[in-house]
Fold this sequence. Notes:
By secondary structure, this protein is an alpha/beta fold. It has a single domain, classed as Rossmann fold. The chain has 8 helices and 7 strands; from the N terminus they run βαβαβαβαβαβαααβ. It starts with 8 loop residues before the first strand and ends in a 15-residue tail after the last strand.
Amino acid sequence: MSGDFDGKTVIVTGAGRGIGRSISARLIDRGARVMMADSDEDLLRQARDSFPDSTEHLARFTCNISQKFGVNNLLAATLDAFDRIDALITCPVDSERGDPLSLSADALDRVMASNLRSAFLVSKVIATRMIEQSKDAENGAPAGSIVHVSSLAGQIASPEITSFAISCAALDSLTRSLAGTLSPLRIRGNGVAPGGGMTNRLRDAIASHPELRPALINATPLGRIGDAEEAAKAALFLSSEQASFITGQIITVDGGRSALDPLTASEI
Length: 268
């Protein structure tokens, strides 16, 4: 599948870390022109500098896409660098621990702005650009693709990370709404919901509670912890023309956890 993004421009938000960084690396390998966006300048610079041989196909832009001016600036920077936009992939970047009783309203607002409001604003602006571009395309040609990375936490009870779980559930709903609105305009909308992967959040949790590692492995039918690369592969598939008849779907990448009756987990 190498080269199947040749000449395509993809914006990746949350690109300075985790899954967003892995997605950017894989896109470069597949021939894409990538705009890496993140609110953290240091993380974004480190990620960008890890691809030294891809200078002309890779750009970075630091911005807060939970604000409209940040999204507009990102759009302008991408067009300046690459002239067009073919796909958008967003990755959530914020979480605060706390169950529904201990979580403050202010903390919830911060996470919802970082993960949901930002995805909503950037999707709206970039989709509008894709529609404008499609006016000059051949009749019936794809106009673009939008993929929102969320989390398994948005599909199951995750009380200790309530703010993140709520934002991811809302992200999945936004994805389906975008698909319903944009599909007639030849823009596909899909999502990836990772679970049980070795994120920084999980790594920190295991460091504090080592018993979590065997418990998680035991609750996963594939019998191991996943990684960011596996979620990145799913995001690239959904963004590519190999998924040309797929829209409005959330692909769960969790080693089978969500398909398993928790009462039988101890038997696996």
